[in-house]
Automatic annotation (TrEMBL):
Gene3D superfamilies: D-Amino Acid Oxidase, subunit A, domain 2, NAD(P)-binding Rossmann-like Domain. One of its GO terms (biological process) is D-amino acid catabolic process. Its cofactor is FAD. The lineage of its organism: Eukaryota, Metazoa, Ecdysozoa, Arthropoda, Hexapoda. GO terms for cellular component: cytoplasm. Belongs to the DAMOX/DASOX family. One of its GO terms (molecular function) is FAD binding. SUPFAM superfamilies: FAD-linked reductases, C-terminal domain, Nucleotide-binding domain. This is FAD dependent oxidoreductase domain-containing protein.
Length: 337
């Protein structure tokens, strides 16, 4: 290895951008190149509402690792949130209600109840906020990461500090454009083909972006219903979770169902102007893959498979991936490969 390591990060979604930037902050003398075939608004990350609320099924290799990823991510976002750059970085704090007509357990979340400043059961008056029939509910404080701002902000900082960007599709680890001392694989659903990983499955999502500047609180209901405020008064309405679907087209039936469920919760949304319909494929894998591998002599650290929680959890997984990568560079990880 040369004195200045040559490192590639494959993927420019929220995971790749976060790995590249945190790595650049950690290693002052290194050449880092991000290689990807889509950037910013063209990634799955840009489709996400970006709320910090893991599903209770979100899973790393152990419960301890999962919790560490979530906690480290929360503190990373809090640091940005309290800086003057929070709005440019796409960080916003708000509170959320989660209601259910049928299941008490969906209103609880063991992964964040002890982490966020507020997580409490709602009272009778709050249960009536979104119409009749809601039996269970919780109220919690959280943050949102708007990738439409976070990705360009991170890319700008990365380039300012000497990072390189290459646009292109990688067909295999053997066909990388140069020789790299270390490669981070942050290709989201693309890893399915790059690594021939059959346990990585697309979980199709569809959302509607509407103009609702009056919305300051998020709401979750049954059947994947969510209403999330955002920057510039644009809220995200969702959603669907379709297992093993590769359909990237907007489905008008999904859109109608989403609109109906969201308007049932908040009738004021009926008048909101529709700005866009978006579709993305969540890279679903249990567990999320953060691990080193030697592939045809190339030192690779995988960081993919974050499912519906890759925006919120990207910093925590990036920190672990980087620590594995630094071990590989120092030659400390031979026994793990
Ligand atoms: C509707 C919807 C709502 C969501 N809501 C939330 C939410 O509220 N909170 C949350 O935390 N998460 C949410 N998610 C999940 C989140 O979007 C994903 O977990 C996250 O975007 C995954 O990030 P990524 O960087 O791994 O993948 P991506 O954003 O897909 O980025 C992958 C990158 O790899 C590149 N790439 C892939 N293959 C190759 C290749 N062979 N060669 C070169 N480049 C390649 C792509 O071009 C891209 O740059 C949501 C997702 C959807 C679809």
């Amino acid at each position: 290895m040369a004195d200045t390591p040559n490192i590639a990060v494959l993927g420019a979604g929220v995971v790749g951008m976060t790995v590249a930037k945190l790595l650049q902050d950690e290693l002052r003398h290194c050449n880092i190149t991000i290689i990807a075939d889509s950037f910013k608004d063209d990634t799955t990350s840009a489709v996400a509402a970006g709320i910090f609320r893991p599903g209770t099924s979100f899973m790393g290799p152990t419960d301890k690792a999962t919790k560490k990823w979530i906690n480290n991510s929360w503190y990373y976002w809090q640091e940005i949130l309290k800086s003057s750059e929070a709005p440019q970085a796409g960080l916003m704090a708000f509170s959320s209600y989660i209601f259910s007509k049928t299941h008490y357990n969906v209103t609880r979340n063991h992964l964040i109840e002890d982490l966020v400043p507020i997580y409490r059961a709602v009272d009778k008056n709050e249960l009536a906020l979104c119409g009749d029939g809601w039996k269970y509910g919780s109220y919690f404080s959280t943050v949102k990461i708007g990738c439409e701002r976070y990705l360009p902000w991170m890319e700008r900082k990365f380039i300012e500090k000497g990072g390189k960007i290459v646009v292109g599709k990688i067909e295999s680890f053997a066909s990388l454009p140069e020789k790299y001392d270390l490669v981070f694989n942050c290709t989201g659903i693309g890893a399915k083909f790059l690594c021939n990983d059959h346990s990585l499955v697309p979980m199709r999502g569809q959302v509607i972006k509407v103009r609702a500047p009056w919305l300051k609180t998020a709401f979750y209901g049954d059947y994947d219903t969510y209403i999330i405020p955002g920057f510039d008064g644009i809220a995200t309405l969702g959603g669907v979770r379709q297992y093993d679907s590769y359909n990237l087209n907007v489905c008008k039936y999904d859109a109608a169902a989403i609109m109906e469920r969201c308007c049932d919760m908040l009738p004021a949304l009926k008048k909101a102007e529709i700005v866009a319909h978006k579709v993305g494929l969540r890279p679903h894998r249990v567990p999320v893959r953060v691990e080193p591998e030697l592939i045809n002599g190339v030192k690779v650290v995988h960081c993919y498979g974050h499912g519906g929680y890759g925006v919120m959890c990207s910093p925590g997984t990036a920190m672990d991936a980087i620590s594995m990568g630094l071990d590989l560079l120092k030659g400390n990880a031979k026994n793990k490969l």
